[in-house]
Amino acid sequence: MSPLVLIVDDESPNLESLGKIFGREGWRVALAASGAAALDVLRREPPAVVVTDLMMPGMSGEELLRAVKTISPDTEVVLMTAYGTVEAAVAAMKQGAYDFITKPLKRHAIVKCVRQALEKASLVAENRALRARIAELAPASAGPGPLLGDAPAFRAVLDTLRQAAPTSATILLTGESGTGKELAARLVHDLSPRAARPFVPINCAAIPESLLESELFGHERGAFTGAVARKDGRFERADGGTLFLDEVGEMSPAVQVKLLRFLQDGVLERVGGTEPVRVDVRIVAATNRDLAAEVRSGRFREDLFYRLDVVSVRLPPLRARREDMALLAHAFLRRCAEKHGKPGVAGFTPAALAALERYGWPGNVRELQHAVERGVILTDGEAVDVDDLPEAIRAGAPSAPPTSGGAPAGGPPALTVPLGTPMEEIERLVIRETLRQTKGDKNLAAQLLGIAPRTIYRKLDRDEDGRLVEPPPEPRE
After folding, report:
1. What is the DSSP letter of 309?
2. Three-state SS for 235?
3. Same domain, yes or no, for 447 and 301?
4. 3-state DSSP call for residue 129?
5. Residue 466 scores a pLDDT above 60
């Protein structure tokens, strides 16, 4: 559904002219000849954007702005003003107006302004929905980045990890580089009975083959040149917890033998040592290689493969879960905005999101994180745009993506009352809630409710015996 734009002006020619202009842009249009009529529209369907004259009889544009922001805080308001009231329009912007435009109106200027306001309203609505979804999925988040997703393939992965986590089973995580295997291992640890004990990761491909055995199993003093003291290895440091063996397929045959012995007996020997050392460690291994193919080629021990492959979980590449793209991008954006001191960066332009969704992501989630971080650092506005993204992602991005429509989400919470509450009490509850939203402004509350200010006093002010207290006299015109 296209976005709703509400035009408010007490002059009929202006109202009708803007209605035709906006209608030709493909936007749904509602017309109101007064602030009171605009509130009637607002109550039925909060528009994405309100375009209102500033100087109107009855409720002014500034008063309408305050009412709109009370009922629907995410609705953007554009003010139309004559040259003599520009200062008033600027003051209204400090109260939350999106922008103002001076009369006589120029078609291209007002269309451009409203289009930009619609993009912001759409961005705010999308960000709100994604923040809510991220919060809902927060229990699946672990470690330094988000392990989030709604795609069926990814939900199946999470279900398997949650089922296996409380057990002591060895888990083998497979998948392309950057798909989040270490985050998956951390999630298993956090959901296991070992969560209070250490989680110790080691990348087997990042340590020279000659040092990996010592790094894993430790060494005794004098075991080799430079071994001036005994050193505990990663296995001993992970005692009682979880050892994450990343890129396990890179292990040399000698280290594979020692790992196999540990998996069989639960004991290890330090390099240069003769005494067995018993430790209680759960193994979670990961690889981006096809270990079954490595076994067939003779590069990986078959018996070790079956010891590791008790529970096998393959993490899908990002291109196979494109429906998670926006969710992940916004989660990374929030973290990066906080990290780099840019809390004003709230989301992505529609063009930027389109570019992210079109890209192939050979580096998967890790590459997405780096792209979003670059965007947050380079953007000068409230949203990361296409030009803030890396060149590889910008290539092929659509030049004029359509603006998503719909009214923005958010606004005051719905007021609920128990069934059977007397009507008189319901009226008082509604008035009190409206006053709370207007921060005690009885005139604005009366405008929102469509009643006279005196009615608010009459409904609320009673003495201890329940008798009405006479309201103060109305000010004379």
Report:
1. T
2. helix
3. no
4. helix
5. no
Question: Is residue 132 a part of any domain in this protein?
Answer: no
The predicted-structure confidence for 433-458, as pLDDT tens digits, reads as follows 777 777 778 887 777 777 778 787 77
The model's pLDDT over 38-89, given as tens digits with 9 standing for 90+, comes to: 988 888 888 999 999 988 988 888 889 888 888 888 889 999 887 666 677 6
Residues 331 and 239 in one domain: no
Percent of the chain with pLDDT over 70: 84
Q: Indicate the SS3 state at residue 204.
A: coil
Helix ranges (DSSP H) in 48-143: 61-71, 86-93, 107-136
Query: What predicted TM-score, i.e. pTM, was given to this entire model?
Result: 0.59
277 occurs within a structural domain: yes
Q: How far apart (Å, rounded) are the C-alpha atoms in residues 48 and 409?
A: 9
Q: How many independent structural domains does the chain possess?
A: 4
Predicted local distance difference test score (pLDDT) of residue 408: 42
Name the domain boundary from 267, 298, 315.
315
User: What residues are paired with 375 via a beta bridge?
Assistant: none
Domain-terminating residue out of 292, 315, 338: 315
Q: Indicate whether 280 and 326 sit together in one domain.
A: no
Q: Which amino acid does the sequence have at 468?
A: L
Residue 172 has a pLDDT of 96
431 pLDDT tier (thresholds 50, 70, 90): confident
Both 239 and 307 in one domain: the answer is yes
| Same domain (yes/no): 165, 310 | yes
Q: Say how far apart CA 218 and CA 253 lie, in whole Å.
A: 18
* pLDDT confidence tier of residue 276, bands split at 50, 70 and 90: confident
How confident is the model at residue 417, as a pLDDT?
55
3-state secondary structure of 359: coil
Same domain (yes/no): 298, 350 = no
Amino acid present at 124: V
Cβ-Cβ contacts under 8 Å for 465 (sequence gap 6 or more):
none
- Determine the pLDDT at residue 4: 92
Helix (H, G, I), strand (E, B) or coil at 348: strand
Are 49 and 38 a contacting pair, CB within 8 Å? no
Question: For 25-98, where are the alpha helices, taking DSSP H only?
Answer: 35-44, 61-71, 86-93
Supply the pLDDT for residue 396: 47
CATH number for the domain harbouring residue 216: 3.40.50.300
How many Å apart are CA 333 and CA 145, to the nearest integer? 11
The side-by-side arrangement of strands in the sheet containing 199-203 is 199-203, 242-246, 282-287, 171-174, 311-314
pLDDT > 90 fraction of the chain, expressed in percent and rounded:
41
The residue assigned the tokens 């999470």 is: 158
Contacts of residue 267, defined as CB under 8 A and 6 or more positions apart, other chains included, come to: 261, 276, 277, 278, 279
Distance CA 108, CA 101 (A): 11
Round to whole Å and give the CA distance between 34 and 313: 62
